[in-house]
Design a protein that fits this description.
- It is a single chain.
- This protein is α+β, with helices and mostly antiparallel strands and about 325 residues long.
- It folds into three domains: about 160 residues, Leucine-rich Repeat Variant, CATH 1.25.10; about 80 residues, Orthogonal Bundle (Cytochrome Bc1 Complex, Chain D, domain 2), CATH 1.10.760; about 55 residues, SH3 type barrels (Roll), CATH 2.30.30.100.
- The chain has 15 helices and seven strands.
- The strands form two sheets. It has a five-stranded antiparallel beta sheet with strand order 6-5-4-3-7, with no helix packed on it. The protein has a two-stranded antiparallel ribbon with strand order 1-2.
- Strand 4 and strand 5 form a beta hairpin.
- Helix 2 crosses helix 3.
- The longest helix is centred in the N-terminal third of the chain and has 15 residues.
Length: about 325
């Protein structure tokens, strides 16, 4: 393990000695050594926060991938928070697709925390590198861009987000809402659910627990449930973003990133099927930016079918 006192001298801006240089080099090697224990690697990652950004950033960003244990990813992000270089935001945006669900809330918080990072986040939204829905910003987070950023960034943000809810299929939702019958047949709605939804959702004893459980939804309005059915990417809980994994042998697996360990990840797929992939076999792990639930569920259904489905969900206990 690197010598803490030697690395600390670098953080204090003292002239670098050979011992300090060697201490930082040791921390860089130790942080990247997958054969070492996680506590030892986390300790060395903490030391990197005391080095210069130019010396440590490549190593820290290399640790923000699905091939690394969650504790290592979190430690690397924590170390990056000690630096103010706008290059951090640029790199985080560039790596967004490979960030795991457990890491994304911390990354979003960091991108919003510093106004100097806002241009990179807004630029990524404008270019489609990140979608508004997958950020799943609450009202206070949206207002950091709308009220507490520069006038230019606030104006650009206002074109993408607002104080109200946002939707990328809003017109479609409004069109279908106007066509829905006032009431629905929950028995027929159960049949629609079994055909269209049961592979990934659970209502009572019907279906599978992959996406959010839908039991006891009587408090949700017809409009609210219709919006979630027709526009699943409106606002995505990070836990339900679909991930694509390419293995070193060229196989492809997709699903929700259900769990992680130092040795493997588990992707949860339709009908509660699980794909367990060893980290050493992961070539690339990236989010799709979309909910596991696809758009277009309304295809082949009538407004009455959708109203029946909503009635079944609302009446289930």
């Amino acid at each position: 393990m690197a010598n803490w006192n030697d690395v600390r001298r670098i953080a204090l801006g003292l002239p670098e000695t050979e011992g300090q240089h060697n201490a930082l080099e040791a921390a860089l090697r130790g942080a990247s050594d997958n054969g070492r224990s996680e506590p030892a690697r986390v300790a060395d990652i903490g030391l990197l926060a005391l080095g210069s950004y130019s010396a440590v950033h490549e190593t820290l960003f290399s640790l923000l991938t699905g091939s690394q244990p969650a504790t290592i990813q979190q430690a690397a992000l924590l170390a990056l928070k000690d630096f103010n270089d706008p290059d951090i935001a640029r790199n985080l945006v560039a790596q967004w697709r490979s960030l795991t669900p457990s890491l994304r809330p911390g990354v979003i918080s960091l991108l919003l925390q510093r106004p100097s990072f806002h241009p990179h986040l807004i630029g990524a939204l404008e270019k489609g590198q990140i979608t508004v829905g997958e950020l799943n910003l609450d009202l206070e987070q949206r207002r950091r861009l709308l009220l507490y950023s520069s006038p230019e960034i606030a104006a650009r943000a206002a074109k993408l987000i607002g104080d109200g809810e946002y939707s990328n299929r809003k017109a479609l939702v409004e069109e279908w809402l106007a066509k829905l019958p006032p009431t629905g047949n929950s028995q027929h709605g159960k049949e629609v659910f079994e055909q269209r939804c049961a592979q990934c959702h659970l209502v009572g004893a019907v279906g599978h627990r992959v996406g959010p459980e839908l039991t006891s939804m009587s408090h949700r309005s017809v409009e609210d449930l219709l919006s979630n059915i027709l526009d699943p990417n409106m606002a995505i809980n990070p836990a339900y973003v679909a991930y694509n994994c390419e293995t070193v042998s060229g196989e492809l697996e997709s699903g929700l990133l259900q769990s992680e360990s130092p040795e493997a990840i588990t992707l949860l797929q339709a009908a509660e099927k699980k794909a367990v992939i060893a980290r050493v076999n992961i070539k690339r792990l990236q989010s799709s930016s979309l909910s596991l639930m696809p758009e277009g569920l309304e295809a082949g259904l009538t407004p009455a079918d959708l109203r029946d489905l909503i009635a079944f969900v609302q009446e289930s206990r």
